[in-house]
Design goal:
This protein folds into 3 domains: 237 residues, Rossmann fold (3-Layer(aba) Sandwich), CATH 3.40.50.980; 185 residues, Luciferase, Domain 3 (Luciferase, domain 3), CATH 2.30.38; 131 residues, 2-Layer Sandwich (GMP Synthetase, Chain A, domain 3), CATH 3.30.300.30. Helices cover 39% and strands 22% of the residues. The chain has 21 helices and 26 strands. Strands 7-6-5-3-4-8-9-19 form an 8-stranded mixed sheet, sandwiched between helices. The chain has a 5-stranded mixed sheet with strand order 12-13-14-15-16. The radius of gyration is 25 Å and the shape is globular.
Length: 593
């Protein structure tokens, strides 16, 4: 197959009547077949042609993860256009930046609220010819409702049934298929140009994960604007796996119990929050139940460590594990539907304690490594070959090497074409012989497993000349159920400090259990008892660190980090520069005495 349209059409031919998507409507899950998805995406592609959007044009999509998002993406590709996702949480100004930089001709939006967000910036976007609204009665200049748009597509297909086939035959593997604008933790977003060839190479590389370990249904809830979720979408299309779209992220656990997915991919914060939630519930349980839980956990971790070391599990331990599984561990698996054996995670490291906990419960978190510029994954731990703490071995047809300064470099057909409108940055990122500088520091062990040891730009150098990787310390701090985010500070300072953002989910339960009922979030964060609890977490973390890495002082923030305030990226990573600027006065005070 030469391009992504081939991948989709091939699946539709093979499984026309089988379920491609599950969509929740009025409390029930409704199936959409591959044939239906093919017909509707054809109408979208023809609708773009009917609006005068020519092949090669940029088409943007702004909305939550849902069926219409995927169909619009497929329709854009079928029309020979370049598909570009915009995070639904971005401000109007940020979204307008992407529309202008990409020279988008058409924009799909979820509803009127997204149109209103863009409207003030339209005078600066003369190239944006049309806005298509999925939901409700939409209004505005050059705005068209989805139903009317689809009607135009059907009319175009009736007039010329071969119009899309003619375009598909002209799609070249080296054509840019998708531009992913990386949210980034510094500066404006960069548009990474990924070709059809890049995506096909990534999909082929992930064939190394057996179908039996993925199963037949996946859930989608992360933004499809992100390269990871987009690759997952095409991976499951290529393999004929059904997709269920989560309508409300706050009710995801309810949806999981109904759908019972067989494979689950996510960013680390989802696993960290799930772990913190379990710990919080256990700590508020009666002492007898706590005792049973902690015994079961210890048994599970002992089994996990035997498996990790490649040792046989003794009979006495297997018997204990069966009892622990019956009492506790099975119930934790049921939180995720009971059928998930493997999770896939990337974007940031997960603390070993959390990975081992899930493994103790009978679920393996397979960490991988990559970035947008390498079409998502370039390394991956495998169901039968994993090493916790590493990010796995290189995928097939992917080369890795470590530069003299420790930077990880990658080569292969998965490496992107370059940054849109930024030739100088492209030249700095790609070598002439096809290697990409990732910006990450790492090492490759004797068995070929890659270990990430730091981020080139994020490394803190103290005034004493010590190099510190903040992410390792932050992950240790975030093991505490009350700490949702921690950001270590100390570049060119005499010691390290930390900004602590508490968990809005777990904090109220802790307050109630400790006799502080009726207080709102900000009042609770100011309590001496909370500071003492966080100090315990800091002290515990410091036990695992060299003296120059220890946290000497910290600040508990009165408000949690949030995507809306710009402190987090849409994939829930801390934007260090923004957070440091916002709280610099408070940080400076920590160093005054």
């Amino acid at each position: 197959m030469k391009h992504l349209v081939d991948v989709f059409k091939d699946r539709c031919r093979k499984d026309a009547d089988k379920t491609a998507f599950l969509v929740r409507q009025q409390g029930k899950w409704h199936p959409v077949s591959w044939a239906e998805a093919d017909a509707r995406s054809d109408q979208i592609a023809a609708g773009l042609l009917a609006l005068g959007i020519e092949p090669g044009s940029a088409v943007c999509i702004l909305g939550n993860t849902r069926l219409e998002w995927t169909l619009s993406d497929l329709g854009a590709l079928k029309s020979g256009c370049i598909s570009i996702g915009i995070y639904q949480t971005l401000s109007g100004e940020q979204a307008a930046y992407i529309l202008k930089d990409s020279k988008a001709k058409c924009l799909f939006v979820e509803d009127q609220s997204q149109i209103d967000k863009i409207a003030p910036h339209l005078p600066d976007l003369p190239g944006l010819k049309w806005i298509v609204g999925w939901d409700g009665a939409v209004k505005g200049s050059n705005v068209i409702a989805f139903k009317e748009f689809l009607s135009k597509g059907r009319a175009a297909l009736d007039a010329d049934p071969q119009c899309l086939n003619q375009i598909e035959t002209k799609i070249n593997p080296d054509d840019v298929a998708i531009i992913i604008y990386t949210s980034g933790t510094t500066g404006p977003p960069k548009g990474a140009c990924l070709t059809h060839k890049n995506f096909i190479a990534e999909l082929k590389a992930t064939d190394v994960v057996p179908q039996k370990d993925i199963g037949d249904i996946m859930m989608f809830f992360l933004p499809l604007s992100h390269v990871g979720e987009r690759v997952a979408q095409y991976l499951r299309i290529r393999r004929g796996i059904s997709a269920a779209y989560v309508q409300d992220i706050k009710k995801i656990l309810d949806d999981i119990k109904e759908i019972r997915p067989t494979f689950f991919g996510s960013v680390p914060r989802i696993f960290e929050k799930a772990y913190a939630r379990v710990r919080s519930q256990v700590e508020s349980a009666p002492p007898s139940k706590q005792k049973i839980f902690y015994w079961s956990e210890r048994v599970g971790r002992e089994v996990s460590r035997n498996i990790q070391a490649g040792r046989d599990i003794p009979l006495w331990l297997r018997l204990k594990y069966n009892l622990a599984d019956f009492l506790v561990l099975k119930k934790i698996r049921e939180v995720f539907g009971g059928r998930v054996r493997y999770f896939l995670s990337s974007a940031a490291p997960i603390a070993l304690e959390i990975i081992e906990f899930f493994h103790a419960c009978g679920m393996v978190i397979l960490e991988g490594y990559g970035q947008t510029e390498v079409s998502c994954f370039c390394t991956l731990n495998m169901p039968e070959a994993f090493r916790f703490g590493s990010v796995g071995r290189a995928l097939p047809d992917v080369e890795l090497k470590i530069a003299d300064d420790g930077e990880i470099m990658v080569k292969g057909d998965i490496v992107f074409k370059g940054y849109h409108n930024q030739p100088e940055l492209t030249q700095k990122t790609l070598t002439r012989d096809g290697w990409i500088y990732t910006g990450d520091i790492g090492r490759i062990d004797s068995d070929g497993f890659l270990w990430i040891t730091g981020r080139k730009k994020d490394i803190i150098i103290t005034s004493g000349g010590k190099n510190v990787t903040p992410s390792n310390i932050e992950n240790l701090l975030m093991n505490h159920p009350l700490i949702e985010y921690a950001m270590v500070h100390g570049d060119r300072r005499k010691f390290l400090t930390a900004l602590i953002s508490l968990s809005a989910e777990n904090l109220p339960a802790w307050a109630e259990a400790n006799g502080f009922m009726g207080l709102h979030y900000e009042q609770i964060t100011g309590l001496d008892a909370v500071k003492q609890e966080i100090q315990k977490a800091v002290n515990e973390t410091n036990k695992h660190l060299a003296n120059f890495e220890t946290i000497k002082k910290f600040i508990i923030l009165p408000k949690p980090f949030d995507i809306e305030t710009g402190e987090l990226t849409p994939t829930m990573k801390v934007r260090r520069n923004i957070v440091e600027q916002r709280y610099m006065n408070m940080l400076d005070e920590l160093y005054m005495n």
